[in-house]
Design goal:
The chain is of the alpha/beta class and about 260 residues long. It has helices at about 30-45, 70-75, 80-100, 115-120, 150-155, 155-165, 175-180, 190-205, 210-220, 225-240, 245-255, and strands at about 10-15, 15-25, 50-60, 65, 105, 110, 125-130, 135, 185. The chain contains eleven helices and nine strands.
Length: about 260
């Protein structure tokens, strides 16, 4: 089966908590189809009357999200296809931004590129010590343009610049907590899940109106992101057509 057709996104609701989980056999990388399904799940959970908060997580043990699908990335041959490809993560980040409910991230392992962007777009993010992070886009001739605003918002310009430029080096989960990407870091997933369960129960019993207004406050000043991320997707869509980037992607796939 074509790997871009593999994977899944699920949405379940229990005791006022909507859980969105994504999975792909290639280290939870996300082809365009799954990114579109993520947008739908976030919008559906945001509008649902049976939940008050949302938990975003992925399946598996050691990788939260390996970013965009390299199978799709390497197949791009024209600008429109390239821009549409990079709009995949842009649409998810904007859906998370517009969602009226708080989104809690559960990051059990490595996050790369777009995976870092997803973590940055949550409102509160928990991780294990295995959740190392890397913005690898420059290493394949592009740059973290689409996820950049979300990352800069959480990490600050200095730490975001460090990750964007030093694209081949992993940063630890504790570094990410120090910089503001993660709010909590645990040694074991079991500890994280125990805390997550208690934490979300408190939020579910909080004033819904207060949570909604907090969400609006947290994202104040990002109202222009629809156009901003569209512009950023266009930059990446153009860069991916260059010989430099095509060669870098093929070299990366051979590793």
């Amino acid at each position: 089966m074509d790997r871009t057709q593999q994977g899944s996104v699920s949405l379940s609701v229990d005791n006022g908590i909507a859980t969105i989980e994504f999975f792909h056999p290639a280290q939870n990388s996300l082809p365009g189809r799954l990114l579109a399904e993520l947008v739908q799940a976030i919008e559906h959970a945001g509008e649902g009357k049976d939940s008050q908060i949302i938990v975003l997580r992925s399946a598996g043990d050691r990788t939260f999200c390996a970013g965009a699908s390299f199978d799709e990335l390497s197949s791009i041959r024209d600008f429109e296809t390239g821009k549409r490809f990079f709009l995949g993560f842009a649409n998810v980040i904007n859906a998370m931004r517009r969602c009226p409910k708080l989104i809690i991230g559960r990051v059990q392992g490595k996050a790369v590129g777009g995976g870092v962007g997803l973590a940055a777009a949550t409102d509160y993010c928990m991780a294990t010590q295995w959740a190392t992070v890397r913005l690898s886009e420059l290493a394949v001739g592009i740059g973290p343009f689409v996820v950049g605003p979300a990352c800069e918002r959480k990490l600050g310009l200095s730490a975001f610049s460090q990750m964007a430029i030093n694209a081949t080096e992993w940063q630890t989960a504790y570094w990410a907590k120090e910089k503001g990407l993660f709010n909590e870091v645990f040694e074991k997933p079991e500890q994280m899940d125990d805390y997550l369960g208690r934490f979300t129960k408190i939020l579910v019993n909080s004033n819904p109106a207060a949570l909604h207004h907090l969400k609006q406050v947290f994202w104040q000043g990002t109202e222009h992101w629809d156009s901003l991320l569209d512009e950023r997707a266009a930059i990446s869509g153009q860069l991916v057509l260059s010989d430099f980037t095509k060669n870098a992607i093929e070299a990366f796939k051979q590793k």
